[in-house]
Amino acid sequence: MRVPRHIIVSAALALLAPAGQAAAQDVVPAPDVAQLSPAMVEVLAAVEASHDPRALDALVRYLQQAHPEAQAALSAWMARRSALVWLAEPLPVAKAQVAVDLPAEDAVPLKLALLDLPTKWSGEGELGAFLSTGSAPGSGFVGRLTVVAERGRWRVATSGRIDYQKTSDEVTRNQIRLTIEPNYKFDEHGYVFGLGQYERDRFQGFTDRFSVSAGLGYNLLDGNGRKLSIKAGPAVRVTKPVEGPQEQTLSAVALADLKLQLTPTLNYSQEVSTYFDAVRRTYYTLAALDSRLSSKLKARLSYTLQHESGSGVARTLTDTTSRLTLLYGF
């Protein structure tokens, strides 16, 4: 679990505050580091709890230069960290909030050292196929790849999904969906987001559709196996229908993302997106039940529904799909 950056930075600023302004409370002191001040112990514990070796090394180098008298104690701290090889659980950290006026020559190097954080990458791949026989023989597959990059308050998620189906030797589904979503978290619950999306689905009445939107998001639930995020904002959509002229409209978009841990090995998730404009209305939802097979492999039973309605040449269609797939996390 990462420690929020504002806690790390504020604790680091306490290091340069006058004596008596900050005190380390509920901090687990390291052995053989009695020469370190309480504020030093606090900021070192905070950065160590983030499990970020680059940030800790940068901070220790800065402290050794700024406080030569503490070099031996700082070396002892680093030796302890190497021996423990980054504990699985972070150390308790005091949540110091100290406001001080720092000289630029002292504040800038320390802030740069703490903000030099690596980018955390994660992702998930999904693949499934089916073959049906009888009165409606057919085959198809679904593939999805999601990659997420996180750094500090920034998060960028990219995803691509392909859904293909052939029934009685005729293609009945050929859908492509690509998205990229950057967002910036400005406090514990709120964030601003941007969303770019490309879709292709002739069976829903369009050959290409581009959507660009931005707005505000809020995390209603976050923790204890429950997560619920909602977001909304304006959007611009450009649609190339199968029949008729190209459409360019100003829309409103609302999205929701729900994740629930039902048991240690069973999870439920659902994502919903809705677009409204003068020509088309789009409703899309993907509900999934995941069963963990190993630390990185899951089996998924999912249900997808997409509803398109509109006026003029826009067609009104509802499309549903049920799938059994395998997911691999990395």
What's the arrangement of secondary structure elements?
Blueprint lengths: L4 H10 L23 H12 L3 H14 L4 H14 L19 H12 L4 E13 L5 E14 L2 E14 L2 E16 L4 E12 L4 E18 L2 E16 L5 E17 L2 E11 L3 E13 L4 E14 L6 E13 L1
Antiparallel strand pairs: 1-2, 1-12, 2-3, 3-4, 4-5, 5-6, 6-7, 7-8, 8-9, 9-10, 10-11, 11-12
Helix pairs in contact: 1-2, 1-5, 3-4, 3-5
Describe this entry's structure for a reader:
The protein contains 5 helices and 12 strands. The protein has a 12-stranded antiparallel β-barrel with strand order 1-2-3-4-5-6-7-8-9-10-11-12. The longest helix has 14 residues. The N terminus is likely disordered.
Number of strands: 12
Apparent shape: elongated
Broad structural category: alpha+beta
Q: Looking across the biggest beta sheet, what order are the strands in?
A: 1-2-3-4-5-6-7-8-9-10-11-12
Keywords:
single chain; 330 residues; alpha+beta; 12-stranded antiparallel β-barrel; 5 helices; 19% helix; 52% strand; disordered N terminus
Summary?
A hairpin with a 3-residue loop joins β9 and β10.
